[in-house]
Records
---
Amino acid sequence: MQVKNLAVFCGSKSGNDPLFSAETMALGNYLAAHAITLVYGGGNKGLMGCIADAVMNGGGKVIGVIPEILLEWEHAHQGITDLRVVADMHTRKKLLYELCDAAVVLPGGNGTLDELFEMLTWNTLKIHSKKIFLLNCNHYYDHLVAHMENMYKEGFLYEAWRERLIVCNSTREIISFLN
């Protein structure tokens, strides 16, 4: 799989587990070292800021996409290669999708899940076939994975969900797919 631009969806907060930031930084370092452009939500706080800083500190390229309404809330990252301010959340997600070759979902909250499920739905509808990776570090997404399995078992999904979403327990596992 040739990935030149990787979308990363993650929290604008860092969460309580230091492993979340460590795994995020490791992914950012990898992207910078391998000339893979980070495409993300444009914020400078939480895991969003962590990955952007790691890529920039490593001499990499970062494209941030932030809606006007979140400029103050997520605090737009002014130290990245390219910050694009868009009208709304829908435009943000569409542009993030258009700019990437694959996506990684790190720990996050409602916005991260919204981005995950929109990408996953588009993938299922065959609007795209981009790989989507879920970083389940320290079992953060275990309940979500169990729920996805239950939706499949109960007949609410059109296909096996693991065909569309690759669950990894570490950044190292994600990197093995990207190599």
Note: Helices lie at 18-33, 46-57, 71-75, 89-99, 110-124, 142-153, 171-178.
---
Amino acid sequence: MYTDFAQVYDRLMRDVPYAEWARYYAGLLDVSGVLPGAAVVECACGTGSLTIPLARMGYRMTGVDLSPDMLNAAQAKARAQGVRIPFVRQNMQALAVQRPVDAVLATCDGVNYLTTPRQVQAFMTAAYAALKSGGALVFDVSTPHKLLDTLGDRLFTLSEEDLVYVWQGDGDGRLFSIHMDIFAQNADGTYTRIQEDQRQRAHTLDELTDWLQQAGFRDIRCYGDRTMEPAGINDLRWHISALK
């Protein structure tokens, strides 16, 4: 996953308001007692589109992802913007840090890509171990309403002069599969075909809360999509924070 796709990922995600997301995450960190200057690890950081603005806000960021191609793109972006961030290849289920950190983030559906309860529990346990006492785990998930009711069995297309993108979603029980066909134009006028298959799981709030408690977390708070209001079943995204 995310090998050839890393080449076009940022272009396909260019309409995502990452600056707004970063400000919101900074607010969640603040409410959790994690202020600029704190050491923060972002899991599933992708190409660093949230890691970099959070670093600019003063957090001592480390980016973690399983894809070396995404990490290479993240490092190049950070270097181009004059931001120094270590990017490390790790599986978020086995997150390990040299010394305890103030916060662990898992952004942009990272937890949805953990498609079994055991995988989510492994991540939460690893995040708990990585945190200082009083540290915060903050993450988001696409909701069951979004994955199964809104995106399930949907087809989206994008056609531009040098890029054609076909996105097909398919819901099956609690699992949501995505197939992408991308044709990207090369410098010589030829096209490269990139095929990407992904799976996500629609976790419920009850499940996430139970797993956090089992991992040892306290003061668990669930918010709606980029709001400080309580999470609701019709939200497209939930943001969740918990303290060690």
Note: The chain has seven helices and eleven strands.
---
Amino acid sequence: MTTSAIFGYFHHTAHPFLIQFSENWGIRYYGVAYILGFAIGAWLLARYYKRDRSPYDANQQSDLFVALIIGVVLGGRMGYFLFYTPELILSEPWKIFYVWEGGMASHGGFLGVAAATAYIARKHKQSFWLTADLVCSLAPAGLLFGRIANFLNGELCGKAATVSWAFYFPTAPDGGTIPRHPSQLYEAALEGVLMLAYSQFRIWKTPVLKSHPGALVGEFLLGYSILRIIGEQFREPDAALTLGLSRGATLSILMGLAGLWMIWRARKAPSK
């Protein structure tokens, strides 16, 4: 990816590869994003166990991460097909396995992670809600690097803008003739940096894990939904609008309602 100033704005050149070996083969930014996200998540989970925030030892942490990787990939791909390209389910269902072509839905990834969390909690006889609290605090790192990969790839471009940091995206529908918001970077800051800071503050500076299991995952879902809706205001819709809202904003409203219920449930449950 290269940028150069043009008439006060920047020109974005998309490139999906960090290192390219052939036309369709190389080390992709998406792959690097996933590796970095899971590496930081693994480091955080190890710290939680050492500081008595998590009941999962080293072997159980490996088990958890294998399940999470499967959940993220399968959930993200299935969510992309169901929420954004449902016509491919019947016409080309085998393309769900073409992960190298891109196409991941964060909301679908969350559903896959929820299934993986339930499986691991049951397997190791741990609280589902405590496990969900721990897992949700790992997610923002992956969201951060994923959004940066979106930017480097020139995907999910922003709406037309006149701000001084706007970019010409040749991958946009207009072919790069209109300056646009770098909405991918906005979402990286909101969904990634801000949510990571909040979740870490809650884990290390408050007793939320022990006093109200399940509250943190509810706060995460509610916070993510609000920040995602804010980010969607600067992003060109990548699917048909529903009641004037983008597909991502519509799904985020449902996620936010689920988060509110989880917070209410955790606050109502007796403290342990």
Note: Residues 1-6 have pLDDT under 50 and may be disordered.
